[in-house]
Amino acid sequence: MAPPSIDELAAVAAALAAPGKGLLASDESTGTIGKRLEKGGIENTAENRRAYRELLYTAPGIGGAFSGVIMFKETLGQCASDGTPFVEVLRRAGVMAGIKVDEGLVPLEGGEEGETSTRGLETLEAACRQYVAQGARFAKWRAALRVEEGRCPSDLAVKVNAEQLAEYAAICQAAGLVPIVEPELLIDGPHSAETFAAASEKAIAACVAALWRRGVALEACLLKPQMVVQGTECSAPRAAPEQVAAATLRVMRRVVPPAVAGIMFLSGGQTEEEATRNLDAINKLAKEEGRAPWSLSFSFGRGLQASVLKIWSNAPPSRASEARAMAGALAEANAAAARGEFAGRHPSVTSAPGATLHETWRGWRTDVDPAAAPPPAPALALAGV
Ligand code: 13P
C-alpha cells in the first residue's frame, strides 16, 4: 500500500494537535522506566512494564484528553491483560499510537562536555516501515541540548542535532509517519530564563531551517520544545506562570512558522503542577492576545506520570485503581490547561505534593551506563545532509 500523502499526514498532525487535546509520552526506554520502577521497589520486567502501561492506557477519560500516546517499541507490540493489543485499546478510545524511533543519546564528538547527538538514523527507514505495519501513526525523535551561559549549546550541537531531526522527519514522512521534532533544551543548571530563551531561539530556528532545507512539510509535523524556564539551580526566584508564558510565546512567535500544526511542550523535569500551570498560562495569554497560529498543548511524560508511579509503585496491584484514577485526573487537568481553563487544586497535590521525576542530566551521562555506552555517533553521515 502506498504511504499516506502529505495532505493525509497533515490531517493526522492536525488531529494530534486538536484543540484541548495533547499527547501522553509513555515511551521511556527499558532502562529509563526500569530506573523509575526500581526506585519504587518494582522489578524491571516486561510484565511489570506492560502492566504499568496498561494502567495508563485504560485510565478514565483518556479519549477526551489525549489525541495520541507515544510508546516505546516493546510496548507497541504488547497487549492489555485481556489480550487486546495496546494499539487497539487506544484506537477504541479514539487515541492514535505513536512510537519513539530514536535509539538514545551519544556523546557529540567535538562538542562541549556533556553535549550529545542522537542515534538511530541508519536503521530508521526499515524501522519506520515496521512501526507503520504495527499501527503507529506518528513518531518521536529526541535531541537533548545542554544550556550553559556562553558555552552551550555549541554551534556544533545545534547544527548536528537540527540536521539529524530534519533527516529523521523526512524519513518518517516518506514512510507515512507524522514526525514530532523534539529539540529538548535541558533545564539542569544555573542559567537564567533569558539565557534559556536565547538558547531555545537558536536551537528551534536551526531545526526549522534544517526541516525547510530537507524538504519536510511543516504542516505534517509537530514541534516538541521545552517551555522557556530558568535553570533548576538558578538563584533567581522561580518565575510565575505568567512570566513563563510570556517568555515562551515570545520565543515561539519568533521562530516557529504558522504552518506547524502544533507545539506540544514536554514537561522536562518541572513538577507536575508547574507543567500544568505553565501550560495553562501559555494558553490563557495566547487567547487574551488573540494571536497564536498553532495549537499549544502537551506531550508530557513525567508531568503525567510522577504521581501515578508514586501510588502504583508503593503497592501494585492493590492500588491500581487509585493509580489509574490519578492518571485520569492528570490527563484531565492538562487537557484543561491546553484550553487555558485549568483552575483549582492540582491533582498531584493530594497524594504527592511537588511530585517530579526530575532526573539530573537526562543526557548520556545518566541515561546510558558509561561502561555500556556505544561509541560516539559518527558526526559524519550528516556532512552532506
Ligand atoms: P517529559 O515530559 O518527562 O520531559 O518527557 C517528554 C518526553 O517525551 C521527552 O522525550
UniProtKB/TrEMBL annotation:
Key words, A-Z: Glycolysis, Lyase
Stored SUPFAM superfamilies: Aldolase (SSF51569)
Catalysed reaction equations from the record: beta-D-fructose 1,6-bisphosphate = D-glyceraldehyde 3-phosphate + dihydroxyacetone phosphate
GO MF assignments: fructose-bisphosphate aldolase activity
E.C. numbers: 4.1.2.13
Pathway given in the UniProt record: Carbohydrate degradation; glycolysis; D-glyceraldehyde 3-phosphate and glycerone phosphate from D-glucose: step 4/4
Gene Ontology BP annotations: glycolytic process
PANTHER family, A to Z: FRUCTOSE-BISPHOSPHATE ALDOLASE
Name this polypeptide is given: fructose-bisphosphate aldolase
Species, as recorded: Raphidocelis subcapitata
